[in-house]
Write a structure and sequence with these properties.
The complex is a heterodimer of chains A (about 575) and B (about 200).
Chain A: H1 3-31, H2 39-53, H3 63-87, H4 103-114, H5 124-127, H6 130-160, H7 170-195, E1 206-209, E2 215-218, H8 223-232, H9 253-277, H10 281-307, H11 311-314, H12 331-344, H13 359-370, H14 381-401, E3 406-407, E4 410-411, H15 414-438, H16 442-445, H17 453-467, H18 482-512, H19 528-562
Antiparallel strand pairs in A: 1-2, 3-4
Helix pairs in contact in A: 1-9, 1-12, 2-7, 3-4, 3-6, 3-18, 4-18, 6-7, 6-8, 6-9, 6-18, 7-8, 8-9, 9-10, 9-12, 10-12, 10-13, 10-19, 12-13, 13-17, 13-19, 14-15, 14-19, 15-17, 15-18, 17-18, 17-19
Chain B: H1 5-34, H2 36-39, E1 43-46, E2 49-53, E3 74-76, E4 84-86, H3 104-120, E5 141-142, H4 144-149, H5 151-158, H6 162-171, E6 173-174, E7 185-187, H7 188-200
Antiparallel strand pairs in B: 1-2, 3-4, 5-7, 6-7
Classes of the chains: A mainly alpha (about 575), B alpha+beta (about 200).
């Protein structure tokens, strides 16, 4: 570990923190329907969209109406994306002559993008046409992120409102998230990324003759426009196979920095939107503090682990950290930082291959996802995920003192706790259930590329990533098979909608409640005690649920590696 | 639910047009007009022919060139398209090795690379980036130490004084961005082009 490495990490945290308030204020205005900086340009477009779609912007929805609209919209998006992928061979903008995407891969990829997972069973430059990348993936990157933000805003309204049945309109929230928040920021980010060397072209792949006279085909494409939203919307599905490790998808240290800031920017700012909408910004800061605490510890562990070369390298006398699977322009610090950010948020982009991380360096990304990606988290998903844990934490605190738990003046009762537990428990069911299945059936055992405990980690990581809607991978796993494409897609669907729908149910139930005035016995939810309680609940729930699986994978591997053991495939 | 169908379908199509066509095409237009070279992939031409991209590494095997890092990229086997064969720096199929920290295959591969490099230059410790594959398999850079490590071999093959080559490498080192971000590095293709120019003089 170097001083420079820590300074890069510190600068990152400072920049993200500095963006929280301005972005939070702007987004609050957008979702309250107030005039803002961009209204003169975008309001006419927004009104036009409502007019052609037959949407009355003032008509609000109950939680069921909101959830129904979201589901219908996502199903329609899935069908459209599936059709584009299956038909890409006969559609235009296919200079590399990519064939139609196979049915199971198209199913997996469509599910993956609609659920904001962006798992890469596909290999960007070897599977997809430019049209599929733009019309299919770039578009879904926008609207799946906007759906996540919309659900978070609806939940915030549940806390902020009292004695009402409605939570706002899904159509309006989704449209505003796309038009006012995602699109303008993406235009700026995309152009900046091109200035760093990221291609943005519809020309075919380039044929070069190398200095030694060999032929080299260089894949290009409309990369920057997709990468901007891939990061800002915490989608993470790469234009290229190697994702943000590819020099065209992340050309410089500066493009890397802007990309990781984009991953956290909106998720962090949403905590401020929460604070503003419930009328007490401190509530937002308290949640951000709990997230920040978990984040910094994760970064420290991963950076420490990667800065020390693992057994295979150090036994051969090599020093300088674990550079297998990492790029020279980023080095150890920026790669470790990226890995923790991308799994804390539900991004899943990678600038280094997590599969080649040290055992403990790879454990943190895995654990981040198992905790439910509540450390900043996906845009919207992170905030509503953390608010589920808040409900549980408040409930636990209530049990300890024997008082009806309340949060922001709302009584937390059986219905909210049940729904919160449903949202929390569906994740381990998918992650651990499918991992257990894959480790006993031949189709599952055919997947891992590494032998020994690392092979188990590859499977565990895949289902964890799918259910948590992350999308990063221990990439050695051969996941483009009927078995993995199908089971992973089921994991993604359950992980997305069996969290989102209970969250909306909680929102509806909270909005209907009366506000209880704060009294001397009210537990303050903006102080250190609450932050500690929240962090504790997240860690205890995660630890109890997942420690055995981590023990079988990364922990055993760490101990075996420290004893100098290696594992050969086929042996 | 049925009354949600019209907003869902119309909004989906409208959003597809805005975010899936208008936005990427607008960025393509602006980028092509303002930053044409970068938008096209930062290509390098010599004598009117494209020799590569300044951002994409390429395979160097001759003793007279500086080498990049090992690359784990593959290509379809010409004999059997279902199989993959090693094809270092295949810029149409980026990939890392995905070998984990207790992989016997990794240990064997690194040892092989290490023995070759030690035979070439027994006097210096081998920099770790010269025996590890990059995440993309297309890393255009090596660390300054890795470039300097290769100076004796290149000097022998080119019949050039080592001092001159060391000077060349040092002049090609790119520092951290703003003195803070990323790591110092040397672009291998740019270094080799400069080396060819030096040899011609």
């Amino acid at each position: 570990m170097t001083l420079n490495g820590w300074m890069q990490i510190a600068l990152y945290c400072a920049v993200v923190l500095a963006l929280v308030k301005p972005l939070g204020l702007y987004m609050t205005r957008v979702f309250n329907g107030e005039r803002n900086l961009l209204s003169p340009v975008l309001a006419p477009i927004e009104r036009g969209l409502y007019r052609v779609s037959g949407i009355d912007a003032r008509q609000e929805q109950t939680w069921l109406g909101y959830a129904g609209a979201m589901v219908v919209f996502n199903v329609a998006g899935f069908v459209l994306l599936y059709a584009i992928l299956r038909l890409q061979a006969v559609l235009p903008l296919n200079p590399a002559d990519q064939a139609a995407v196979a049915p199971d891969l198209a199913f997996n990829t469509s599910t993956s993008f609609v659920t904001n997972t962006n798992w890469q069973s596909y290999g960007g430059e070897t599977t997809l046409s430019y049209l599929s990348q733009m019309l299919g993936l770039t578009h879904q990157n926008f609207v799946s992120a906007a759906s996540g933000i919309a659900v978070a805003v609806a939940l915030i309204r549940g806390f902020a409102r009292a004695s009402t049945r409605t939570l706002g309109s899904f159509w309006v929230d989704m449209t505003r998230a796309t038009l006012y928040v995602l699109l303008p920021l993406c235009v700026l980010i995309a152009l900046f990324l091109v200035s760093q060397g990221m291609p943005q072209t519809l020309q075919p792949y380039i044929e070069a003759t190398t200095l030694e006279g060999a032929k080299q085909t260089i894949a290009v494409g409309p990369v920057a426009s997709q990468v901007a939203i891939k990061m800002l919307g915490t989608n993470g599905g790469g234009f290229f196979n190697a994702n943000a490790a590819h020099p065209f998808e992340n050309p410089t240290a500066l493009s890397n920095f802007v990309q990781i800031v984009s991953i956290f920017a909106l998720g962090a700012a949403l905590t401020n939107v929460f604070g503003r909408m419930v009328g007490d910004e401190r509530q937002g800061w308290a949640i951000l503090a709990a997230m920040g605490l978990l984040f910094v510890v994760g970064v420290a562990v991963t950076y420490w682990a990667e800065a020390n070369a693992h057994g295979v390298l150090s036994n051969l006398g090599l020093t300088g950290g674990n550079m297998e699977g990492k790029e020279v322009r980023f080095g150890i610090a920026a790669s470790a930082l990226f890995a923790v950010i991308t799994t804390a948020a539900s991004c899943g982009a990678v600038n280094a291959m997590h599969d080649s991380f040290t055992a403990l360096g790879g454990l943190i990304p895995l654990l981040n996802m198992q905790l439910g990606e509540v450390i900043i988290g996906g845009v919207g998903a992170g905030l509503y995920g953390m608010l589920i844990f808040v409900v549980v934490a408040i409930f636990v605190a209530g049990l300890m003192v024997g008082r009806t738990p309340e949060y922001l003046g709302k009584k937390i009762e059986a219905k909210e706790v049940k729904m919160a537990m449903l949202g929390i428990l569906c994740l381990p069911l998918m992650m651990l259930g499918f991992t257990a299945l894959a480790t006993v059936v031949p189709a599952g055992l055919a997947g891992p590329a590494n032998a020994g405990p690392h092979g188990f980690s590859e499977i565990l990581y895949a289902y964890t990533s799918a259910a948590a809607n992350n999308g990063s991978a221990f990439g050695g796993l051969t996941a483009n098979t009927l078995f993995y494409n199908t089971t992973l897609a089921i994991g993604m669907l359950v992980g997305r909608f069996f969290v989102k729908i209970p969250v909306l149910a909680i929102a509806g139930s909270l909005a209907a409640k009366k506000r209880v005035p704060a009294s001397a016995g009210t537990f303050p939810t903006h102080g250190g005690l609450f932050i500690g309680l929240l962090v504790g609940v997240v860690l205890i729930m995660g630890g109890l649920t997942f420690f055995p699986s981590l023990a079988l994978g990364p922990v055993v591997e760490h101990l075996a590696g420290a004893a100098g053991q290696t594992f050969a495939t086929g042996g | 639910m049925l009354n949600q169908l019209r907003p869902a379908l119309v909004l989906l199509i409208a959003m597809t047009a805005v975010t899936g066509l208008a936005y990427p095409l607008a960025i393509t237009g602006i980028a092509g007009a303002v930053l044409p070279a970068r938008a096209a992939g930062s290509l390098i031409e010599r004598d009117g022919k494209v020799v590569g991209s300044s951002l994409i590494g390429q395979s160097f095997t001759g003793a007279g060139y500086f080498h990049g890092r090992p690359s784990a990229t593959t290509a379809a086997d010409p004999a059997d398209a279902a199989k993959a064969v090693p094809a270092p720096y295949n810029a149409a199929n980026s990939a890392g090795s995905n070998l984990g920290p207790t992989s016997a295959a990794l240990a064997e591969r690194v040892k092989g690379e290490l023995d070759t490099l030690k035979a070439e230059n027994p006097n210096q410790p081998v920099p770790v980036d010269l025996v590890t594959t990059s995440g993309s398999g297309l890393d255009p850079d090596v660390s300054p130490e890795a470039a300097l490590f290769q100076v004796p071999r290149v000097a022998r093959a080119r019949n050039l004084p080592e001092d001159k080559l060391r000077e060349l490498v040092t002049s090609r080192v790119e520092g951290r961005t703003l003195g803070l971000l990323g790591e110092p590095r040397v672009n291998v293709l740019a270094l080799n082009l400069a080396l060819d120019d030096l040899a011609k003089r």
